[in-house]
Amino acid sequence: MEQIVHSFVKEHQLISPHQTVLAAVSGGPDSMALLHFLCSIKNSWNLKIIGISVDHGLRGQESMDDLEFVKNQCEEWGIEFAGTSVDVHSHRSESGTGTQESARYLRYQYFERMMEERKADVLAMGHHGDDQAETMMMQLVRSARPESLQGMPIQRPFGRGQLVRPFLSLSKSQIAEYNARHQVRARIDPSNEETNYTRNAFRKHVMPFLKEQNPKFHSHMQAMSQRMREDQSYIREQAREVLDTMYFSSNMKKIVHFSLSTFKTFPLALQRSAFHLILNYLYVNQTEDISYLHEEMFMNLLYDHKPNAKLDFPQGLQAVRAYDEVTLSFDRSDEEDKYEYFLNAGEKVILPDGAHLYAEWGSPQEKEGDSVFTCDAHHVKLPFIVRTRRNGDRMRLRGMNGSKKVKDIFIDQKIPAHLRKTWPLVTDSSGEILWLVGLKKSGGSTDGSSGTWLRLHYENKAET
C-alpha cells in the first residue's frame, strides 16, 4: 500500500518536503491509517504533522470519546494535536440545513481556521477509492450532467493552501490490511451501519455488487474521475469564449444578456457549459438547486420557434427570450421598474440604468438623430416629463395620420419585453407623448421654422 500512495502523492504533487500538513482525523480506520502513513514519512520528508479532529456532538459521550482517542494517539506517536466540539443541532436550527450538511459546514469551518492559525500548507483527508466510487454513483443517480462523474477532486484550493486526498488510489480493503499489518487502532462509528443515510445505503447495498463485478472498480472510477475533470476543465475554458460575447452587469442587480444568434454559432457542448458558468455568476456558485431538467428547459427555450418566452429558475431567477435577445436576471416587480422625472430647459436627468437626458434651448437648423429630438417651444408645455410607459399609452407619429399604441411600436421594433418596462419616453406637462426615445417621434411638434426651439439629447451608458 505504501508504494501505491507514494507514487500517487508524487504523481499529483500532493505533499512536498518541509511542509506543514494538517491531517483530518475522526478516529475511524481510514483517517487513522492516513495519520499513521503521514507519521511514517514525517522525518524523511521533514514534515510537520498536526492531527485535527472535530466532535460534532451527535453521539453524546461516544463522540467525545472519539476526540479523546485521537488526542491520545497523537501524543503516543509524538504528533501535535488540535481538536474542538461544535454544536450541530443549533446550526441546523438557525440555518435550516440538514444534520449532515450542518456537521460538514462546521467541520470545514474549523479546518480552515486551523489552516490559518497553524500556517499550514496542506489539509490531508482520508477519503479512499471506494468513497470516490460511492460519491460518483450517488451523483450519477441524482443528475445526468457530465459533472456528476467528476467525484471528489484529488486536490483543490482550501484556506491558505491545498486540500488533498492521498488515499483515493486505495480500496477500503487495502487500508484495512495496512492497519492490521501496522497494528493501527481505530474506533468504529455505529451510525455507519445505519442505512437511513443515503451514502450508507449505497455502501451496503450497491457497492458490494459493483465490486463483485469488478474488484478494481475503485481504480476504474478514480481514473474516470480524473479524465472527466480534465475534459470538463478544457470545455469550461473554451466556454469562456462564449461568455466574451455576452453582457454581464457590474452592479448589485446581476443581469446577463446575450444575442441568441451569436450564442448558437458555438458548439452545443460549449453552449451547455456556458449556461452553467452563467449560473455560477448569478447564483455565486450556489447552484445545488439546478438540475439537468433546468438545463434542458433552458435549451428548449433557446431553440423554440416562439419569438418570446420566459423560464423561471429557483430563487426568482428568470430567463427571458425576446426575438434574438436572451436575458437572465432575478425577478423584480413592475413597480420597482417604474420611474418619472420632471425636466426643464437647461437641466438633465439620470435614468436608473445610468443613461442621461439633457434639455436645452436650440435652433431649427440643428440636425436631429436617433438620440436627439427638437421641437418648437410653442407646441409643448414645460416641464418635460421623462417616464416609463403606462397601459394605454398612444402617440401621434410623424408622417402618419392618427395615433398608435406604444405597445405596438415596441412590437414592431422587436424590442425585448424585459426592456419595454424601463424604456424612456418623453411627454410635455399636458401628457402628450413627444418622443419614444431612440425609436419614434411625435408628428405635431416641429411645424414652422421660427420662434424658440427646444432640444433633447439622450446619452446611453456606452456614450458617456
TrEMBL record:
Record-linked Pfam families: ATP_bind_3, TilS, TilS_C
Catalytic activity: cytidine(34) in tRNA(Ile2) + L-lysine + ATP = lysidine(34) in tRNA(Ile2) + AMP + diphosphate + H(+)
Subcellular location: Cytoplasm
Keywords: ATP-binding, Cytoplasm, Ligase, Nucleotide-binding, tRNA processing
Record-annotated Lysidine-tRNA(Ile) synthetase C-terminal domain positions: 384-456
Alphabetical GO biological process terms: tRNA modification
Positions annotated to bind ATP: S26, G27, G28, P29, D30, S31
Source organism, top-level taxon: Bacteria
EC id: 6.3.4.19
NCBIfam families named in the record: lysidine_TilS_C (TIGR02433), lysidine_TilS_N (TIGR02432)
Domain notes: The N-terminal region contains the highly conserved SGGXDS motif, predicted to be a P-loop motif involved in ATP binding.
Family: Belongs to the tRNA(Ile)-lysidine synthase family.
Protein task: Ligates lysine onto the cytidine present at position 34 of the AUA codon-specific tRNA(Ile) that contains the anticodon CAU, in an ATP-dependent manner. Cytidine is converted to lysidine, thus changing the amino acid specificity of the tRNA from methionine to isoleucine.
Protein name according to UniProt: tRNA(Ile)-lysidine synthase
Source species: Halobacillus halophilus (strain ATCC 35676 / DSM 2266 / JCM 20832 / KCTC 3685 / LMG 17431 / NBRC 102448 / NCIMB 2269) (Sporosarcina halophila)
